[in-house]
Amino acid sequence: MRSPQPLRNGGDNSCSPSHPPRFHSTVAEHKLRRFNSLILVFRLTSFSFSLASSVFMLTNTRGSDSPHWYHYDTFRFVLAANAIVAVYSMFEMGASVWEISRGATLFPEVLQIWFDFGHDQVFAYLLLSASAAGTSMARTLREMDTCTASNVFCVQSDIAIALGYAAFLFLGFTSLLTGFRVVCFIIKGSRFHL
Amino acid sequence: MRSPQPLRNGGDNSCSPSHPPRFHSTVAEHKLRRFNSLILVFRLTSFSFSLASSVFMLTNTRGSDSPHWYHYDTFRFVLAANAIVAVYSMFEMGASVWEISRGATLFPEVLQIWFDFGHDQVFAYLLLSASAAGTSMARTLREMDTCTASNVFCVQSDIAIALGYAAFLFLGFTSLLTGFRVVCFIIKGSRFHL
Fold it and tell me: Which of A137, A143, B113, B128 stands the most exposed, by the fewest C-beta atoms within 10 Å?
């Protein structure tokens, strides 16, 4: 399903409403491609961090005498949130690659714009709350005997949570860019006013 | 310090860029007042919840044999986040009342618009992460002996955290409205295109 609205091209890449689209420009097209590539890079980084966080948490179990991540609700929440963000980022990377290569959005443009921004916001909140909850749990474990008995478990949990924060950071940056696209769409009826 | 830009008035309250300001309309002015009043109501609700949460957490201490909120880092974080949001909401309520009564923003318009939206976003993230961390800690306490020894302490902590979530919800609603004002400002150079 492609966007019903074709790309519009003009003189610059700002989303000022005062300049209507004028003529096809390779410079403008290059700028749009660069903007979309930046989104792709942020998504890739966010995907990498959230996937790494999920893997770190998932493999945080060694032997029957050591604590396991699935014994703690909070760590299950951290894993779930990071896994969700990893899957979402992978899907969005596909959508970005489609957009860069074909010059059209995967869903109809208006849907794509709001879908991206809405999900970026919601998942950023989800990831931050999971990481904050994880931090609280990790600190609590340090005050108990768990970490003296199995320090590796605590260190690996800390790393997983830190990776979750990094994923949140890049998801937040992406959210700013997709927010900018929403504003451009409201102004000009096009996701990016070239 | 008043806004250097006077209010502009037109036919409707949408922020479509296609209709330039036309004439002064009492209906349009009434609509702007209603929009600002809605923001004020949300801020008041957010303030009430965050203040109540702070008070509930602050008074969660009874006798020397019972646990105290300040023994737990997470509960200190919950209290601090709610107190910050309460103070911020109180300040913003003052700014809203000023705007409704005088028809001009407290700071220069562009600063006020971005200040409101930026702080709403940041404090919403702060409050959610504090509440999520608090939830994690409250669940941990229930699994330990703390809650069997002093159930009232745990119940009161739960209430404080729940009030924090409510404050976050209304701060989120306010953030949507101030986000709408930012979009209107970008489009028309006025915080609300009447």
Answer: A143
The phi, psi pair for B50, rounded to 5°, reads: -70, -35
Helix, strand, or coil here: A49?
Answer: helix
What is the chain A residue with the closest CA to B74? A136
pLDDT digit string, tens, across residues A48-66: 999 999 999 999 887 777 7
Dihedral over Cα of A139, A143, A145, A150: its sign: positive
Does the ipTM exceed 0.85?
A: no
Spatial distance between the Cα atoms of B102 and A12, rounded to a whole number of angstroms: 39
DSSP B101-157: HHSS-SS-HHHHHHHHHHHHHHHHHHHHHHHHHHHHHHHHHHHSSHHHH-HHHHHHH
A-chain residues within 8 Å CB-CB of B136?
73-74, 132-134, 136-137, 140
The DSSP call for residue B71 is G
- Measure CB to CB from residue A137 to each of B124, B136, B183 and give the nearest one: B136
Between the two ends of chain B, the Cα-to-Cα distance in Å is 23
CB-based contacts of B77, cutoff 8 Å, min separation 6: B130, B133, B134
Which pTM does this prediction carry?
0.82
**Ramachandran assignment for B61, one of left (phi > 0), alpha (psi -120 to 50 degrees), beta (any other):** beta
Alpha carbons A128 and A131: distance in angstroms, whole number: 5
Whether B43 and B99 have beta carbons less than 8 Å apart is answered as no
Q: What pLDDT score does B25 carry?
A: 65
- Binding-site residues on chain B for chain A (CB distance < 8 A): 15, 17, 73-74, 124-125, 128-137, 139-140, 182-183, 186-187
Structure tokens at A26: 């390779």
Cβ contact A161:A134 at 8 Å: yes
pLDDT in tens, A127-146: 999 999 999 999 988 888 78
The DSSP 8-state label assigned to residue A69 in this structure reads G
